[in-house]
Structures are given as C-alpha cells and as structure tokens.
Fold this protein.
Amino acid sequence: MAVTKTVSPGRIAEAVAAGQTVFGENRVQEAKTKVASLDGDLAWHMIGHLQKNKAGQAAELFDVVQSLDSPALAEALNRRAGLTGKEMDVLIQVNLGGEESKSGIAPDAVPDLVHNVL
C-alpha cells in the first residue's frame, strides 16, 4: 500500500501509471479530492483514526477501514455502506499500551466488538 498523506493527486497518478493500485489515506477530506480525481481500478484504505461523524463519507470513499475502534463506529459504517449495497472490510485498531492519547479499543473489549461486527 502506498500512503498518500499530503501527496498531490498528480503524484498519485504517477504511481498509478507505474502500477500502484492500493492507497492509504488518513483524512476523509483529503481522500475525497484524491479519489474523485483518479481513474482506474484502485483500492482506498482509511488508515487513520476515524470519527463516527465521518463514517458516512468514509463508507462511500474507502474500500477498507483499518482503524475500527468502537461498536458505534462499526454500526455507522455498516449502516451507510448498506445503503449503497457495499460490504466493507475493516481491521480493528487495538490500543495495547492503554495510552489515552492513542486511538484504539482496549484489548479486553475486542471479543465483544468482533462479535458485534460479525
């Protein structure tokens, strides 16, 4: 995966021309412009923390969310993806260190989240 944080659509187009097809972005607003401006069979991954209020836009833009960290976010993504008939892949972000400044679900809450997502 090529991470496109702060990379212009023109530079990303160069990567596409060279054969790159999977891209990671950490901001919904930046992805919106980039996804709309690039053609091809490309896959976009949300790799940064995703707030629930941006889940709707994320479900429309991304093929994969790599930072699922709450049941509420899972429900919001599922609801919006379902409206468009899209099935979205997710990865669960776990905060192993328990740092409050870091995103991710607590390790002991993972089984419940997995159960809810399935």
